[in-house]
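Our preliminary data section would be incomplete without showing what the modeling component actually yields. Below, a chain of 383 amino acids is followed by its predicted structure, encoded as tokens that our downstream tools consume directly.
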Amino acid sequence: MGSTTILIVDDEPANLKILAATLGEEGYRVIAATDGPTALRLAERAPVPALILLDLMMPGMDGWEVLRHLRENPVTEHIPVVMVTALSDEKDERGGFEAGASDYITKPFRDPILRARVRTQLEAAGMRAMLRHDLAREKQLRDLEGDLMQTVVIRSLAHLAETRDPETGNHILRTQKYVRTLAEDLRQHGWEMSDDYVRLLERSAPLHDIGKVAIHDSILRKPGPLTPEEWVKMKTHAPEGAKAIERAEADVYKEASERWRETELDDKTRNLLDCLGIAKEIAMRHHERWDGSGYPDGLAGEQIPRSGRLMALADVFDALINKRCYKQAWSHEAARDEILKGRGSHFDPEVVAAFERCYDEFCRIAQTFADGPTDDEAEDRAA
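Predicted structure:
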């Protein structure tokens, strides 16, 4: 009990002396203020008081105004306040409770009542604090469960696409990291993106090529250049991917609506739908080009959503530096030069500028999540 701090607020020194003596005998640490502004400063100073005894009738800032400020401040909003006054009108008492006070004591003080009320309010405050902690922990667990659900859904879909295009290996992990790196840099250079958006952007990035499940192996794994007809078919993977994610969105919404029978979706479902929404945008737009020469719709400039512009650069860089069935791997330096050549034509100039600033980090990510040898390469080495 000795560590429990109680703030007493009264413009009469005699009242402060009585309260301090009584509470001190109980082992509390007592701090005092004779006016409202001082009380507010002491109330938010560590260690924050566990209880405040507040006189209502004070010159200048009265107790009602002090109470209002306490309840508006996140640091002090949960501190129990016991009103102390000579007034005994029921209207005043009711008004105090409506304003956020926890209890009401009238002057002159009666020691047994004062001690009992203080003990009761401290015990009640302790229980409320435990409840807030439990609720916060429950929310954290729900958020974690939602994060895991998103990760499982997205990784499962992404690996489905990967099974059709096995040479991509850790491509989905690398592009995730590239996209987040670009987004965090651009936030520092004027792009307004929330923490939640960047997190969802990174999480949804692996689905950018989900539409490849609709492309036949004869095209997807062809070792040489595609014919014009094959290229037309290959380009359909962007809208096909967006359609697949849109169907997933509809399934999630339908299942959630049937489960809860509510118009408002729970936070986990809403978060998953937000993630799928960004994933759909990336799948559809990561082959659009800044100058309008990309596909599927030839969008140009800022018509292309930011998510698509970020993934466009991340995807090309990773494709250049890694071996594919139709090409050998480029050096990091050659890939960098190719990206810089595409400034203002293939890529958003601001995204290219971010890439230049983050080039070393791109190389680090590429090395950290590098693909292992293919089965054929492993056999050659063993021989």
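The beta strands are 5-9, 29-33, 51-55, 81-85, 103-106. Residues 374-383 have pLDDT under 50 and may be disordered. Preliminary results of this kind motivate Aim 1 of the renewal.
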